[in-house]
Amino acid sequence: MSQRAHPDIEKVLISEDEIKSKIVELAAEITEDYGDAGVLLVGVLKGAFVFMADLARSLSIPIDFDFMAVSSYGTATKSSGVVRILKDLDYEVTGRHVLLVEDIIDSGLTISYLLRYLKARRPASLEICSLLWKQGQQPVPFEVKYTGFVIPSVFVVGYGLDFAERYRNLPYIGVLRLEAYGGESPH
Ligand code: PRP
Questions:
Q1: Which sequence spans correspond to the domains of the chain?
Q2: CA torsion sign, 32 to 49 to 100 to 68?
């Protein structure tokens, strides 16, 4: 399907159709791996809400839902990998098969923190499913079992990802024009 991109989008990096196909692939893997045992999807707000909604609707195994909301401390302390929990889980994860659902892994600090945090609650298993992985300079100390797309180090928005809370509703992943964020890298 041809798409007319938002005027603030320099180019569409991953189209709506590409995302849809990838979700079908990921859902098939997840269905195969968990089967009737099912899985607890834990979405990391806010970015993951769009991906999680589509992924969940492609899964035909028993699934439960929970969400966490986190925010990183300032850039000065982000290197410590400490994030602030704004919303904790509603349910116990002890003994459950847990799949953390993210929209993007960038530095990996958020997911590293969440893995430590959740492992301490002794789930039966704990894996990661991220739509995007901005594979960067530094290696990350965890395995991402389900990855949608590895992307270059560009600033992307859409499909849950924002800049200053905008663009989350775009149905594709796009590269934001420099002018749209004032020419300064938002990271
Ligand atoms: C984004 C994204 C991840 C995190 C990845 O969230 O959703 O949670 O950053 O970055 P990292 O690998 O460098 O830690 P953000 O803090 O932008 O909040 P949001 O999901 O509410 O947009």
A1: 9-74+81-180
A2: negative
| Known catalytic membership, residue 8 | no
pLDDT (tens digit, 9 = 90+) per residue, 156-179?
999 999 999 999 999 999 999 988
Q: Which candidate, 158, 160, 153, places its Cα nearest to that of 187?
A: 153
The answer to whether residues 129 and 142 touch, using CB atoms and an 8 Å cutoff, is no
How high is the pLDDT of residue 124? 98
What are the pLDDT digits (tens) for 89-142? 999 999 999 999 999 999 899 999 999 999 999 999 999 999 999 987 667 888
Confidence check: pLDDT of 28 > 90: yes
One-letter amino acid for residue 110 of the chain: T
Q: Ligand 1, atom 7: nearest CA belongs to which residue?
A: 47
Annotated catalytic residue: which of 33, 66, 88, 106?
A: 106
List all residues 6 or more positions away from 36 whose beta carbon is below 8 Å from its beta carbon: 61, 62
Mutate to test the pocket of ligand 1, among 104, 142, 166 (most ligand atoms within 8 A of CB): 104
Helical spans, DSSP H, in 47-171: 49-58, 75-78, 109-119
Classify each residue of 135-152 as buried b or exposed e, where b means 16 or more C-beta atoms within 10 Å of its C-beta. beeeebebebbbbbbebe
Architecture of domain 9-74+81-180: 3-Layer(aba) Sandwich (3.40)
